[in-house]
Design a protein that fits this description.
Layout: E1 19-22, E2 28-33, H1 39-47, H2 51-58, H3 67-74, E3 81-88, E4 91-101, E5 114-121, H4 130-144, E6 149-154, H5 159-166, E7 172-177, E8 180-186, H6 191-213, E9 217-221, H7 230-241, E10 246-250, E11 260-261, E12 264-267, E13 279-282, H8 289-299, E14 303-306, H9 316-331, E15 335-337, E16 343-346, E17 353-356, E18 364-371, H10 374-385, E19 397-402, H11 411-419, E20 426-431, H12 437-448, E21 453-457, H13 475-484, E22 488-490, H14 493-505, E23 513-518, H15 521-533, E24 537-538, E25 542-543, H16 550-562, E26 568-573, H17 584-597, E27 603-607, H18 611-620, H19 643-648, H20 669-672, E28 679-680, H21 683-703, H22 717-728, E29 734-735, H23 738-746, E30 755-757, H24 761-771, E31 775-779, E32 793-797, H25 800-814, H26 817-820, E33 822-826, E34 831-841, E35 845-852, H27 855-858, E36 863-867, H28 872-880, H29 899-915, E37 919-930, E38 934-936, E39 939-943
Parallel strand pairs: 5-6, 9-10, 9-13, 10-12, 13-14, 14-15, 18-19, 18-20, 20-21, 21-22, 23-24, 23-25, 23-26, 26-27, 27-28
Antiparallel strand pairs: 1-2, 2-3, 3-4, 4-5, 6-8, 7-8, 11-12, 16-17, 16-19, 29-39, 30-33, 31-32, 31-33, 34-35, 34-37, 35-36, 37-38, 37-39
Helix pairs in contact: 6-11, 8-9, 10-14, 11-12, 12-13, 14-21, 15-21, 16-17, 17-18, 24-25, 28-29
Length: 960
């Protein structure tokens, strides 16, 4: 009889278990099943493990593996015996295996649901988080194969491995017997295990981006011998920026006797460089990139910025070339920005990296920029850098990433980095596409709770070079979900910069109340009107008249900021002519000093053709001793300093300041002196930026208490699961009949008002007698369903005569009963007709939607959305966030309806879809919300195997 170890593999090779992961130090490794072809790799791996690690693994000296050991560790059935390896460069760096066991501890098969697990990590790679990543993946494999519990025996001295198990967050039992620590833990994910997994994901992905943005040494591959060209330009940009690390120029065409170019050491190959290389910037034709990547991998380069084009943006052949590029880089543990990238910039004083095609290093500051398009990147850098003709006020960039085709490093990775980057206060992103909306929303919510995140999201077709998951959600819905996650969604790069400049240097407003003051009545009125249009609450403008002095502005601004009914101030200014009129520098100093006295409220300036004022505002806000000095050639400080002087002054590298919010203690006045007052050339731009800041501040306050998902005693989760399981046995996807829909909804306390079929007048009369008058007669054919405007519904039929007359009218108007599919339903109390929907989108996840039934939702698109699971606070805000919400709350003297009952219905639908992802679509229409209670008059429900939830599985990089 064959032992389990001798049996042939019972399953095909599980290719879907292969995955790339980011390790704790930011490097990458590939995890894959171990097969019979790995014997030599296993032996080589074991030879590089220390005797101590071998002892910890086998509890005895074990210098080498026997042939029997090698056979056992490479022959698996992928069900009861599974082995996974972490590899770099195709070689093993760690292994893990499980063996299913029965209650007696001996090898077993299903239905046994316990397995022994053991790890071995090469000493050179210990401490990189390899074992933690392998545990996540082997646990996911085990759950897939019906194993619910792992057991591990560990020597007490093996503290590292004990920590791997105890820190994972699973429910555990621990015992000590015969000198061995025995750990048993359930594999079902817990809130703690998911939190641990996501914290590790954040640290690892942030570190991987940090390695790309803060390298100690850089090689530019593809530096031309003649001036010009991409490689030569980037080399000069890095050199001119003052990068303190080692810099190398590489080109295989260099003459052998060439030692340097432009003062930079020159080499024919990365392999020839004697010292380590942290980052390689690749600017060679696409067909030569694979050879360069291999050289970099063999030399130990940590990351790549690939500027080369000719990849997925060029068509199917390029897409295959891009896939091969990513796979090759990951095999060596490297991450890639690009291909077709514009480059990266880091203005930190100890980094000063300009590995991009931008000819000048941008001004250092507190704004992080991410774009996928190089052209948009240029526009953003230019807009932030220049002062005239746009938003003014000096601020700068902390880091800049233009990811091109974002084949590997994406906006999600950069968000992970910015989340705890002390040099970045505000994140600005231009996204042409969302590769993983579910993950982006999760990361955005966490980032937005710490610092503002402003996003422009592309509306048109997805660029050809981008790999994007299919979504059925319209652009407006995705935008609504981003706002729900705390993202400040704007439509243009102008609005992106407008909002970013305000948020980077001003505190968050405590509310929507705005004071307006200035020396132009018409400009003040225009600002007032825009505030009303943006949903703010402005006070009547204070006109200081065109003769106002700097002291008049100072006094007025001081009074406005001291007013407890004011949350923000907009100052409007036009050029004043005449003796005694304030100069730009004088007015800027007056505004700055008034704002510094009350640092907890934002101040904005709307100016008309006052470039000098904008520069002066920036210079006056600097903490540098030189900031108040005379500009070269100026007399008595009457003229603002030149732009170049303004750009260089101040201390942009001070420690990060968290934006104060309502209720937060304001920073000291000395700190606020460095806070810039942003100036805008148009009232609508200033007010729009302020309105976004107000909404974001409100989101921050609400996010501090997100609410809870309530429990309901009458929910029968187990019964619903059994019913769903039985229904799905009929097929992979099906729309339930009316009786089955009502039965399933009833398990969650959602009661659909009974409707009886009426295929003939007599059947209609019998149904009405059963239900009791008054009744409604409705046609349920698809073209007439929910179309009361077409006459397919007859309401308030109080007796049989009216019912039969209505039946005759329907059939005369629309055809035979078999075409109309008429039903009789008891009348519901009068109220407001609404619609509730839930759907599972393959990219964004489970989504709950609400709106008024009829034209409001169908024609105007007035629907609100929330991600499932929905909390009680989110349900409340969902009901109130549609434009037609006043109809629910007594608009124009109508009777307010029972919104608490409506919110409970929303929460029950959310629970149903969250508890049972097989419920892929639910529609309740109409839902009549009356003065007391709600009535669900129609329901449809679809079941299908749920889409894969990669956010609940082990950490992986996007597959390529």
């Amino acid at each position: 009889m064959q032992s389990p170890a001798d049996r042939q593999d019972r399953h095909e090779y599980p290719a879907h278990w292969e995955a790339d992961v980011v390790l704790r130090d930011g490097g990458t490794a590939r995890i894959r099943p171990i097969t019979v072809d790995d014997a030599d790799r296993l032996v080589s791996f074991y030879e590089q493990v220390s005797d101590e690690s071998k002892y910890y693994r086998f509890f005895a000296p074990y210098p080498r593996l026997s042939a029997k050991d090698v056979h056992r560790f490479t022959h698996h059935d992928f069900v009861d015996r599974v082995g996974l390896a972490a590899t770099i460069g195709g070689e093993f760096i760690a292994t893990v295996r499980y063996d299913r066991i029965g209650a007696d501890g001996l090898p077993a098969s299903a239905p046994a649901d316990e397995a022994e697990v053991a790890f071995l990590v090469q000493d050179a790679h210990q401490g990189r988080g390899v074992a933690s990543a392998l545990l996540e993946h082997i646990a996911a494999v085990a759950r897939e194969r019906g194993i619910r519990r792992f057991a591990a025996e560990v020597l007490p001295a093996n503290s590292k491995m004990i920590k791997v198990f105890t820190d994972a967050g699973y429910t555990q039992k621990r015992s000590f017997e015969d000198g061995v620590v025995r750990l048993e833990f359930d594999l079902e994910p817990t809130d703690r295990s998911l939190a641990v997994q996501r914290a590790r994901e954040q640290r690892a992905e942030a570190h991987s981006v940090r390695r790309l943005l803060a390298p100690g040494s850089v090689a530019v591959v593809g530096v031309g011998r003649a001036p010009g060209g991409v490689g030569r330009s980037v080399l000069g940009n890095i050199r001119d920026a003052g990068h303190p690390g080692r810099l190398y120029a590489v080109n295989k065409a260099f003459p052998e006797d060439l030692k340097e170019i432009d003062g930079v050491p020159a080499y024919r190959s990365v392999r020839d460089i004697e010292g380590p290389v942290d980052l390689a910037v690749v600017a060679v034709p696409a067909e030569h990139v694979p050879a360069v990547v291999s050289e970099c991998g063999e030399h130990g380069v940590q990351g790549l910025v690939v500027l080369s084009a000719g990849y997925a943006e060029s068509g199917p052949e390029g897409r295959e070339r891009q896939r091969a590029l990513v796979q090759l880089a990951r095999a060596y543990g490297m991450r890639i920005i690009g291909p077709n990238a514009f480059g990266v910039i880091n203005t930190a004083p100890d980094v000063l990296l300009n590995a991009s095609l931008a000819p000048e290093m941008p001004r250092p500051g507190r704004i992080g920029l991410f774009t996928q398009s190089g052209a948009i990147g240029i526009a953003l850098l230019s807009r932030l850098h220049r002062r005239g003709g746009g938003v003014t006020g000096v601020t700068g960039v902390s880091t800049f990433v233009s990811a091109g085709n974002r084949a590997d490093v994406s906006g999600n990775d950069v968000l992970q980095y910015w989340y705890d980057d002390p040099e970045t206060d505000v994140a600005l992103m231009y996204l042409e596409s969302l590769g993983n909306p579910r993950k982006f929303t999760r990361l955005a919510r966490r980032t937005a709770a710490a610092k503002p995140l402003v996003v422009v999201q592309g509306v048109g077709s997805v660029p050809q070079g981008h790999a994007v998951r299919a979504t059925r959600l319209p652009h407006a819905t995705v935008s609504a979900l981003l706002r729900q996650a705390g993202v400040i969604r704007v439509d243009t790069i102008t609005e992106l910069v407008d909002a970013g400049l305000l948020l980077a240097r001003q505190p968050l407003p405590a509310g929507p109340r705005v004071a307006i003051l200035g020396n132009s009545e018409s400009l003040g009125v225009l600002t007032y009107d825009r505030c009303l249009a943006e949903g703010l609450r402005p006070s009547p403008p204070l006109d200081l008249t065109t003769g106002a002095t700097a002291e008049d502005f100072h006094r007025a601004l001081s009074r406005a900021l001291a007013d407890e009914t004011c949350d923000a101030v907009v100052v409007t200014a036009i050029p004043a002519i005449g003796e005694g009129s304030p100069g730009d520098a004088e007015l800027a100093e007056a505004l700055r000093s008034a704002a510094a006295a009350v640092p907890g409220k934002p101040v904005l300036v709307v100016h008309v053709e006052l470039g000098g004022l904008a520069e002066a505002l920036s210079a006056a806000a600097s903490t540098s001793p030189q900031a108040l000095a005379k500009a070269p050639g100026a007399e008595g400080g009457a003229h603002p300093p030149p732009l170049s002087a303004s750009l260089e002054r101040g201390d942009p590298h001070r420690p990060a300041e968290r934006l104060p919010t309502a209720g937060a203690e304001a920073p000291e006045a000395s700190q606020s002196c460095s806070r810039l007052i942003p100036a805008y050339p148009a009232a609508e731009r200033a007010v729009r930026a302020l309105a976004e800041a107000v909404k974001y501040a409100q989101w921050r306050r609400e996010a501090a208490d997100p609410g809870k998902v309530p429990e309901y005693d009458d929910i029968d989760e187990k019964g619903a699961a059994e019913l769903i399981g039985g229904l799905l046995e009929r097929g992979q996807g099906l729309t339930l009949g009316q009786a089955e829909t009502c039965e399933l909804l009833d398990r969650y306390g959602i009661h659909v008002r009974r409707a009886l079929p009426a295929p003939a007048p007599d059947a209609a009369a019998e149904a009405a007698r059963t239900l009791g008058y008054p009744v409604a007669l409705k046609a349920t054919a698809p073209h007439l369903r929910h179309r009361a405007d077409l006459g397919g519904v007859r309401l308030d039929l109080t007796d049989e005569e009216q019912l039969r007359r209505a039946y005759t009218e329907l059939t005369e108007l629309f055809g035979q009963p078999e075409e109309l599919r008429p039903v009789v339903q008891g009348m519901a109390p009068r109220g407001v007709d609404t619609v509730v929907r839930a759907v599972i989108d393959p990219a964004a996840g489970a989504l709950l939607s609400f709106g008024l039934a009829g034209a409001a939702s169908q024609l105007l698109g007035d629907m609100a959305h929330r991600l499932i699971p929905v909390t009680d606070r989110e349900a409340t805000s969902l009901v109130r966030s549609i434009r037609t919400a006043p109809l629910l709350f007594g608009w124009r003297g109508s009777t307010p309806v029972d919104t608490p009952a409506l919110e409970e219905l929303l929460l029950r639908v959310s629970r149903l879809v969250d508890d049972h992802p097989e419920v892929v679509a639910v529609t309740l229409e109409p839902v009549v919300v009356a003065k007391h209670g709600v009535s669900v008059l129609g329901a449809t429900l679809r079941l299908a195997p749920p889409p894969a939830r990669d956010d609940l599985g082990p950490r992986t990089l996007p597959a390529y």
